[in-house]
Each structure stands twice: as C-alpha cells, then as structure tokens.
Amino acid sequence: xxxxxxxxxxxxxxxxxxxxxxxxxxxxxxxxxxxxxxxxxxxxxxxxxxxxxxxxxxxxxxxxxxxxxxxxxxxxxxxxxxxxxxxxxxxxxxxxxxxxxxxxxxxxxxxxxxxxxxxxxxxxxxxxxxxxxxxxxxxxxxxxxxxxxxxxxxxxxxxxxxxxxxxxxxxxxxxxxxxxxxxxxxxxxxxxxxxxxxxxxxxxxxxxxxxxxxxxxxxxxxxxxxxxxxxxxxxxxxxxxxxxxxxxxxxxxxxxxxxxxxxxxxxxxxxxxxxxxxxxxxxxxxxxxxxxxxxxxxxxxxxxxxxxxxxxxxxxxxxxxxxxxxxxxxxxxxxxxxxxxxxxxxxxxxxxxxxxxxxxxxxxxxxxxxxxxxxxxxxxxxxxxxxxxxxxxxxxxxxxxxxxxxxxxxxxxxxxxxxxxxxxxxxxxxxxxxxxxxxxxxxxxxxxxxxxxxxxxxxxxxxxxxxxxxxxxxxxxxxxxxxxxxxxxxxxxxxxxxxxxxxxxxxxxxxxxxxxxxxxxxxxxxxxxxxxxxxxxxxxxxxxxxxxxxxxxxxxxxxxxxxxxxxxxxxxxxxxxxxxxxxxxxxxxxxxxxxxxxxxxxxxxxxxxxxxxxxxxxxxxxxxxxxxxxxxxxxxxxxxxxxxxxxxxxxxxxxxxxxxxxxxxxxxxxxxxxxxxxxxxxxxxxxxxxxxxxxxxxxxxxxxxxxxxxxxxxxxxxxxxxxxxxxxxxxxxxxxxxxxxxxxxxxxxxxxxxxxxxxxxxxxxxxxxxxxxxxxxxxxxxxxxxxxxxxxxxxxxxxxxxxxxxxxxxxxxxxxxxxxxxxxxxxxxxxxxxxxxxxxxxxxxxxxxxxxxxxxxxxxxxxxxxxxxxxxx
Length: 873
Prior knowledge:
Number of strands: 36
C-alpha cells in the first residue's frame, strides 16, 4: 500500500448568503465558492483556470456593511461575510452593466454562430434592460483575417480578455493582446499572425460571446439541430462532445455541461482539448472513407464484396491453421474491448502467442522496456491536481508538448499553479515546461540513465555530487512526488537503459512517490491491461498461473496458448522473414508513417494472407487480401484508458456509415465463425468481463463511464443518455511489483566525428493516417524543423532559418532552429514532420549529417503578409 497522504482539507468558515448560513472554504475565490454552493452569479471575464481580471463588472454582490456593491471574482472567502446575490441594488447594477455591454453590440444574433449558446444573449434576457436607450452610432471595426481556423468579429467583443489570458497562461503563447485605447481598443494578435499554439481552438469555447468562432463550423448548422454525443477520440486522452447531424460530424468540443436545464458548451470549463482532437477529428467527413469490405481479385485489384464473403474468406484461411503461424498486430488506437477480443482470438482460438501493440517502438529492447514501465506505472493526474505530489521529476520526456499535448498540459498546469515543484532531466529542455521548472539538468542522452542510477544511490545520503545536488534536493526534501518517464524519444532508443534505472530510483524513494510512464500511444495503458501484448493476459502476466486459470474461466473454459513471444518490432521482422502464414493488422495507423517502411513492405509481401481493419485506405492496406471497414469514434460503444489509467467511454451517437461495422463486432464475428466457446452480444458484456479480468472491486458497467450528459430534452433533440449510477473510481493501476531483474538490453548508438545523433518524436499535427485526412487540419501542419545546439550550428556553418537535408535520414528540406537548451551532438525534430526514413535495424537513426539546401518550392513563394486593420467608425 502507498503511504501517500493528501493535503489537509481547507478550513471551513461560516458565511451568510441571502439570509442562509453556509460553510465555505476559507481563502477560496468568493465567486467560485458561490457557484460551487449553488448560488449562480453571472460573470464574463472570470474563468476558474485563469487569473482574475475583474473588468466585466457583472459579478457584483452586496456585502453587509459596505456602501457599494463589490465584484465577487476579486474577493476571497472570509469568516462572517454576509452576502446578497439578488438584492435590489445588485439587480439594478447588473441591469446597468448589461446595458453598457450592449451599447456597442451589433445585436446580430440571427446570423451569429454563437446563437443558442451565447452568454451575452442569455444574460441580456435574464438581467438586461429590455430596450436600448442610446441613439449614438455604434463603433465598428473592419474584419481582419489572422487565423485560418478561428474567425473574429470584433464588433461583438466585450473585452473580457479571456482569450488573451488563455494564450498567455494556459497555452504559453503570448500572441494575443489588447490593442488601441479607451473606446477604440480591440483584441488582436501581434503582427496579425495566427494563434498558432496547439490549444488555440479553446479560445472559441471560452469566448462568452460571438467574437471568436470556428471557421470550419461557421454557418454550417444551429446548435439545437445537432446531436451531442459524449465520447472520447482515438487520438487524445480525455472526454469530448461530438456534434453530429445525419451521421456527419460538424464539430468537436470539450464536454458539455448542464446550464439552466440545457446541455451546452461550458464557458467555464477547465477541460481544454488539443487542436488534434478538435480539428484533426474532422477526418470523419473525408470522402475516401471505406464503406464496404474489400477483397483482392485474381488480377490483384481490390473490389467491394459482401460481408458474408469477406468473413467466410477470412475464416477459411484461419481454420485449422497451425499454432504459432499467425500474427496479430494491434494498433495503439484500438479500444479495450477490441484488444480483449483480439487477445482471445490469438491465445484461445488461433493458438498463437504472436500478438502485440508496441509498433511505435523501433527495437525489441525499447518495446520490452516500455512494457515493464507500464507494468510499474501507478501515477494519477487526479492526485497531481489535488496537490498530493509535492514534486514532479520529468525524465527524458522529449517533446511531450508536441507529441502528447493533452498529457503535457496537465503537468505544466500543475507546475504553473504551484500544485507541484517541477524538475527536468533531459537532453533537450522543452521551453513549455522549463519556464515553470525549479530544477533543470541537461545531459547527453546516453548519460541520463547513469544520472538516474546516481540519484538512486544518493537517496538518504548527505553528500551528493555537485552536478546533481538540485535534483537530489528535489527528491530528498519532498516525501511525496511523481516521477515521469518519457518512452517515445527516438522510437524508445533510451528505454532499455532508462527504465531499469528509473525503477531502481522508485524503490529507493519509497511508497510516497509514484511513477508514470508517458507515451503518445492513445490507449497504451488499456492495451497493456487488455492482453494485446505478447507477454500479457487481461488477467495479468502470462507467466502467472492464477492469471492463466482466471482468463480461461472468463473466456468460457477455453484453453490458451501459454508461451511468450517477442514484441511488435521482432514480430514485424519475423513476418518479413516469412514465418507467418496469416498477418492480421487491426487499425495499425502508426505503421503508415513508420520510419522503416521497407520492413513493413517485406512483412506484407512474405505473409501468405493479410487481413486489415481500417476506416481509410493506406499504402499498407491497399495490398491486403481482405480489408474490413470499421467505425469512427462516435459510432461505437467501447472504452479506452488515459495514460494514468482513467477509463473513458467511447459512445455510439449514430450507426456506422455505409456497411462499416463496430470493430468489436467484426472481431466477434470472426471468432464465432471459428468456434469460440463464448459469445458477446454487445459491448457491455465485453466490458463486464474486462472488469472481472482486471479484478475490479465491484462489477463494472460500460454505461457507468458516462459523464453527466444530455438526455432526451430539448434542444439536444434525443441525443445520448444520462448516467444512472456514480462513475466508478476504478482505475487501471496494477497491483504487480515491477520486475527489477529486468536489466534491459542494447545501448544508444553514438555518433562518429562528422555526424550527429538524431532524436525524434511524433508530432500530433504532423503526418498521420487519420489527421492527414482532415482538410481543415492541413492549415495547422508544422514546418519541418531541426533543432541544433549553437556550438554545433556554428561548427557546421548553419544559422537560424537555414534550410538543410538530413543525409541518411530524410530528403525533405528542413529549417534550422538554434536551441541553447539542447545537448551538443544532437539533432532534434519531429519524425512524421521530417518524413524520416530508416531501412536499417539500428534504433535512433544514428549517423545523421546535415547538408545545406534550398527551401521547398512552397516555402520560396511566400505571399505578402496581411497587416492588422485599424478600427474605423
């Protein structure tokens, strides 16, 4: 058991609100305390995740003993306050403020995309005067165009500055500001450039009026015409709301919230989603989507066939297949239910141990070490938010901001809000984190494991090495904390040495510290727990007798294949060597941009029969014998796990398009045709068995994962459903001791005198099997860049902005960026932006040399920059 202790609860003090006494937390923001207590106070500029600005003056309250009203957003709860939120003076002041805010507003609700979910529209009815008393001409601004996906109507702006503060504080992108003076002030961006951060779309949601709206959604539909489905995406952690009509996706937002009886966008939400979830999810509208099963004909061309023919062909090739002659590769965006059924298909029906999801990692040692790390992970974002982790040490996290922004935001916000003291140990300092860190340690990548070993040895000693004194102090002075380890850098090239070192450090730190391995693989935690790994069962490690016995009972008494197999990198090599007759590729999106394309091509060519499930064609599945069309994230009932083990519900808001099917139904159909001993009728039954396999303390229901969401009431128009029971507290944390005998294997390959080592991660806005099919997401594609230490750049005669090619890595021109906070001898970039190619067997792409070149054609023909338009009468 962990000895972790939560901070003490805040002191509660007596406060009188509208004649009734309440106990509220002392020192808490008064407006937020009133809202939490059920006393709604209208407000515009206040947002719980942002600093207080106090400029809308709408959250006025009356405090006994004071001659004039006070703004509640800039006050704290104190003992003995006597407050009135609805007195005659308060109501009169609110009416006056609403009249002031509407004095220059265009009153164009019929053509405003915010209509139906606008706070100004709502408050004008609830607190407004009812008529205008002014005859002066309203101020007018010319409409600028500074962002490809965010539209601005400055005439509607009420200068709440939420968008400015969000960019400054949450996104750490100081691009938006207030320009002009007095009645001529307006919101804009510096240099009239785009709001280019990865979370920029959130300014649309937190804008309380129709000033900032979504260009892709503009004039497409009214919100009351759309169906809201609370779900999760296949790309990002956390929950979202999918807004659909007729089965088509119109927009993706953070989860809706009930307000005055209706479910709508929560302008006060603290759930911020990345642009990948918001705009990248629009791939669902792409016309290339697969809508019927496809099979190769005698001439080697794919053509549409009936489901019965496709399933019969698959089962006939799988029937009586020798044990171990098939291989199932499970994509990292597969759901828990899909992984569970594929594990049964492999272990129990096909009698093969060859099933794995770890294709993201480019070597066997890297993949095996990642599995070890996931087994030991017990960190919890909820505890981070509750200030239970006094310190957080991030090791080798790489570019987590660009590779997994939804995860990165939680760490950054905890540090910014002083919920934890942040330390960084890496070969490249991510500025997004470094700005809020108290301890920084920059090391060569191959030396980081040694530093961790020294830290483990120094715990409890008074004489640490001077170079690491600050980090040791962070570990020694805090009894409770979180160690975060990045697994993705250079395809996991450092995992084999780092994971054992970090596990040893965790033992030295004791029970007060937790461990969280992080990866951009969407459902890594769930796939590990659901048995889609060569050394795992849904009930535990394959080597454990109890785990084998329990899963056989759950699967209806079926026997299982008990031998272990290597991880996905070695399985791909085995397939390329012709060891498998059947290769099953289930939603293997990550293979489409894998650096070793030659290996994947050989694996397909050497396998006698290849099956794939997907929603789009790709260079891979265009060659397979049978291609089965599957469902998108709002067309299926399933579950996923966030990286901290939080279970998320994937909800079916409409049936799959065309003849496509829910993925779990496809797998279940194949299993049933092959004689499976247990049959599942719906996703709830699969999830219930998953709960048994995970050892949940109480029966789990898939429906229990619903957030409080819309029911059948207007204006949500028979949308989804409401939770019937409390959301379970169960999380995917494994009560298993890490295998400390695991020593890893291999090493990070060094560089020769004239070459550098290339470190890379996948960029969430780079090339991707799904995101690349969202045409609006194309506007956010990053420019290929490589980062260099100033000394390395000077040695090679390179300067900021120069264009280079990566000789031995990619032919795509990339721009040089000088970064003083990167180790010498390192080239850093985003693999799926640079277009990396690696046809060898050495991880990490060593031996890269830069060669000057010219810019790509599209970069050389730059267009004239638009200039900021000034306000006019």
